[in-house]
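Hey,

Quick one before I head out. I ran the complex with 6-O-phosphono-beta-D-fructofuranose overnight. Inputs first:
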Amino acid sequence: MADVKTHASSKPPSRTILSLGNLPPKRTQFEPVRTASRVDPENPPWPAYRGYHKFSFANATMGQRLPTILGKAIDDTIRTLNEEYDETRIVDLTKCIERMQELMKDLQTNQNLRVIKDDGEGDVAMWNKEIAKFFRGKNFMNATWLFAEAYKYRRLHECFSISQHWKDYDVFFRQKCDTFSRSSTAVFELSTRFAEPFEYAKQASDADKLKAAKLVFHELTQVCLWGNATDLSLLINMTEDDIKNLQSTGGEHLAETEKNILGNDLDKIWETKVSKLKGGRIDFVLDNAGFELYCDCVYADWLIQSGIANEIHFHGKRFAWFVSDVTRKDWSWLLNSMMYGSLFPNASDSELASLRQMAARWKKYEQEGKWVYEQHPFWCTGYAYWSLPSEAPDLFIHLAESDLVIFKGDLNARRLCYDCQTPASIPFETAIGPMSSADGAPPVVSLRTVKSDVVVGVDQERADKLDKEEPGWRISGKYAVVLYSEGTPGEPNP
Ligand SMILES: O=P(O)(O)OC[C@H]1O[C@](O)(CO)[C@@H](O)[C@@H]1O
């Protein structure tokens, strides 16, 4: 073999200096970096966040938060194990715990992402196609944060879904129930206002009614928005008072917090959409169980009573997801414990009656088909919503029939915007790509308290100032956005 160092071709070429004076000037900003057709889960429209990025919340989440969350999940399962008496179930659950410990090892030693085992769930094909096409050879820290974090929750589900007796076990269920029962002040603040059917003043003219409806819309949308501040995955060490502060629902507090809504389309949503809607269909893509779900339901109740909607679809998760997301069990738990439970030992009889009155009405909505709870497998995948029309066309066509789709919370916002380093000033419509521009894309609202890096639809100067003066503002949950896209009416063509 020729010595590479002395071979003629290894000599550096002599330097040629080009004069480029007549070419167009260099640009420094290219937006978006990738056009929709070149975007894929490993290559979002702007550079992705990844676990190894120390500048991003991805790093703390993948490195510390996820192992802590998994450790608590193991503790919960051991508690259940200690309460079990049947030998076959005990042996079966012990294996689930061993699988969780293996997952912990994979996470802490940053293993490559393997395929999901076939546990008969409707999402296995979607997961494995995405892993095979885009994440082969990637590990927890260098895969995109959105995918790696979602993948961890799917692997956690697999620990149970391949068991015999514990397929639907929810390691976060105890915690979810617990926060709702610790939210009594805000729970009764709302139930005592909204238990009685909503009515306009007797002499009110149509104009008065519209004005009153606008005010209620403004305030209830904010109640629904700030209900998202109580997120179990972040509030592990919260005191009762901290929770109370986050949940204040009084008018004064709302006026104060409206200043913290950095991108605020509330008026636009009312003027162009909600005020014109009569007997429409509204969809909620839910986020957290317990108090946030309760706020969503209070809001949905008013949307029905005011005649704005006659059908509400609630989209939840099929299994335990990002700690506190709503599953069907959480949904039933909320309505039934409001109706029959004894969660609030210090509440007065009249407060408890208000809660039961509301629960009875909500259950009736369900029986009448005015409220529909759904759980499409796509919601528990690692795909961003840019992929919703192509990966879940049935779901897209279903959403296209809605008059308004409200996406709750931070994770939904991350998935709408592809969870990448989008400049803050990029308009919401651009940031959500096909969910705004695809044929049939429905009107979409994002109600989000900001708890992770990606922020769009916000004045760039304000975002830059906060980056400089208030480090941590992107993950504190102190700020929020209410962003709206009108969509692209027409026949869906996913
Ligand atoms: O319940 P939310 O509002 O979706 O928030 C979930 C939290 O978890 C994260 O996914 C990070 O783990 C962030 O999106 C956010 O901090």
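Strands lie at 261-264, 280-285, 309-315, 371-374, 404-408, 444-449, 480-485.

Talk tomorrow,
K.
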